[in-house]
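Continuing the series of single-chain predictions for the mutant panel. This is the parent chain; the variants come on the following pages.
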Amino acid sequence: MSKSILIAKGIVKQYGDYTALNQVNLEIPKGSIFGLLGPNGAGKTTLMRIINQIIAPDSGTLIFDGKPLKRADISQIGYLPEERGLYKKMKVGEQTLYLAKLKGMPHNEALEKLKFWFKKLDILHWWNKKVEELSKGMAQKIQFVVTVIHQPKLLIFDEPFSGFDPINAAIIRDEILELKKGGTTIIFSTHRMESVEEICDNIALINNGKTILEGAIKKIKNNFRNNIFSVKLNTENLTLPEQFQIISNTDNNYQIQISENATSNQLLNALIEKGEILSFQEKIPTMEDIFIKAVKDE
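Parent structure:
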């Protein structure tokens, strides 16, 4: 049995002279939250549409749960695009029931699961409202429910927190984490790097249609470590041996980079001689730091 829910090999997609995807490769482990990252125009939306079989690649292979992706697999995929679409004149309950049936769910099962989700998200009182009466955030909740209602193996969320206030963003985040606990694999595309840090296990970074970075977040962050330590001392005008470079100093909060032939213990010993150490920790690059550096260096 495959350990990956989706494997993309050499995916290419062109629109005339424009290459949207150029030999994209990635592997999404089962039961993970996988961050699909990249600047605007990098090719993320094109890849998501290919996975959903809205469009076809010009070349390359997609393996879904151990087998080549086929049309019937769409029933096992849920997709929440960044550009939402609900029928504004229809009532919420009527519309969600209709959309659930389009996913192949029998009427009674669809009704039961919709009522479950509406109660869970405290939106049952919206059932007879028209979509046009809802705010953007309210409509977002409805589309979230429609995306997950058929319990697919793979969920694809494109900017799922767009339009939400912090309280409702936290509610949807917690639901995404609950879905993961239940065994669902999630592709999560966003520009909010703090959300990536918070919930993703693995990421792929796409730029100019190519995969430039892929893997577990912990491993990637470790690879981007640059031996910079954040130190707070009660000492002004700090001077150190040449193997320790002071990058910045703000109110005795020093950023110090250690050369390759030195260690953090040696830095600590050098600092002890200079005064009282109030804090000392390695400055691990954030996903935003890594995103910017990887794109600039590519």
